[in-house]
Structures are given as C-alpha cells and as structure tokens.
Amino acid sequence: xxxxxxxxxxxxxxxxxxxxxxxxxxxxxxxxxxxxxxxxxxxxxxxxxxxxxxxxxxxxxxxxxxxxxxxxxxxxxxxxxxxxxxxxxxxxxxxxxxxxxxxxxxxxxxxxxxxxxxxxxxxxxxxxxxxxxxx
Amino acid sequence: xxxxxxxxxxxxxxxxxxxxxxxxxxxxxxxxxxxxxxxxxxxxxxxxxxxxxxxxxxxxxxxxxxxxxxxxxxxxxxxxxxxxxxxxxxxxxxxxxxxxxxxxxxxxxxxxxxxxxxxxxxxxxxxxxxxxxxx
Lengths: 135, 135
Description:
Number of helices of chain A: 3
Number of strands of chain A: 8
Shape of chain A: globular
Helix content of chain A: 10-25%
Oligomer: homodimer
Largest sheet of chain A: 8 strands, mixed
Strand content of chain A: 35-45%
Strand order of the largest sheet of chain A: 2-3-4-1-5-8-7-6
C-alpha cells in the first residue's frame, strides 16, 4: 500500500547554490548529503517541516540527471511515494497494465528498496516507489 | 512557519484520462473536483495516503496551465507548501531577497490563502505557499 510522499526529487546544476536558495526560501535545513556513484549524482536532502526535498546534481554527462537538465532545464525531476513494499506495488501496477521502468525493486540510497514507474504511465511525471529500510 | 507539503500540482491535457491513470498507478482516489474560473483550470484532487496530488486541466488558452503545457508538455507544475500564515511567509521571503510572484496573499481554492514564489528563486521550481482556512 502507498502511504503518501517520501520525497520530491529536483534536478539542479549547482548543489551548494541550490541548497542556499532552498534554505533561504523555505527555512528548511540540510539533513543528509551523499554521492550515489551508480546514478552519477550528488544529493542533498532539505527537510522543510515534514517534507523532504532531494536536490540532485549530476556528477557526469552520462547521469540521468544530466540528460534531464540538458533536455528540460533544472526543475522537478520525480515524485517518490512511500510504500509498505516496493515489490508489492510494482507487482500490483504490472498486473494492472501500468508501464514500469523497474519490474524488480532494487537498492536505493540509505538502505531503501526502490523502483521507477515509466513517465508515460502517469502523463509525463516520473514516479518512484520507495520502501524504507526495515528495523 | 512552513509545516511541510500541502499538495503537488500537475498539468494535464485530459482530466478524466489523468484521473484514471493516477488512480490505477497509485491506488489513490478523487476527493475533490472544482473549476477555478479565475485561473481557467478544472481541478481534480487525488488522495494517495497522506499525499494530495492536484491535477490541473486548462479550460482556455489564456490559462497559465495551457501556457505551461504548450512550453514544456504535461507534467509537474508546482509544489505547494503548508504554512501557518501565507502572508508571514511572503513577508519573511521578501525581507530575505527571495523573488516573489505574489507579495500579498490572495484567495485560493477551498477558502485557502495562497501566494506564489517566483520559479527563479528556487532554480526552476514553482513554489506555492498555502494557509488552510481557519476553523
């Protein structure tokens, strides 16, 4: 079952500049920084009350985030939904004909299990399904 | 103070089709429908656990949503933050040099008070500040 939002992912060109802009505009603060080598992104998570915004800077030109910025400019990249089980959601979607990028959940940041839905499934919005690490 | 997310706004071309796609993909359901004449949009709100997604269909070619879709295609249009006081947030932002669309809070849907931050203030993301109706 989907419980709500896990985070919103935003593609940025300059991570320190984006962190400063978001902190000033929202009063939020950085609660996590990480480089995810597999995705070629550097990540800063801003906590704004109960909302987590994930700022994503590409670390190389073959990063999906680099390609996104080249095509559309910086901006909102994906919406991540919080699920009890990522695999159960992917299985449910597949059985209902929803087009997926990942049919099998895979490892995400901070010990999570994640999977992506194809943007064509929901009218141009990239959805991620996230299951928090157990325990 | 900003408490977290109020909703995510998504620009769509066909509202019934978008509602069906979102319901199928997420298991969410429609909790509100409304036409906002002033903004020339028809709105359907999908509740997905604790997340509210606002699907926005332009009702005329001078709708901001029509222009957004013409320029970028359908997709995520804005992030709405939940505030104790929209005007207090706009005042705080202005005093810190954050570029605003609305310096004065105005009436939004369902009795809310809303204001928009300029997308240039936070790297290409349109932020809305929302204060729920009192009482």
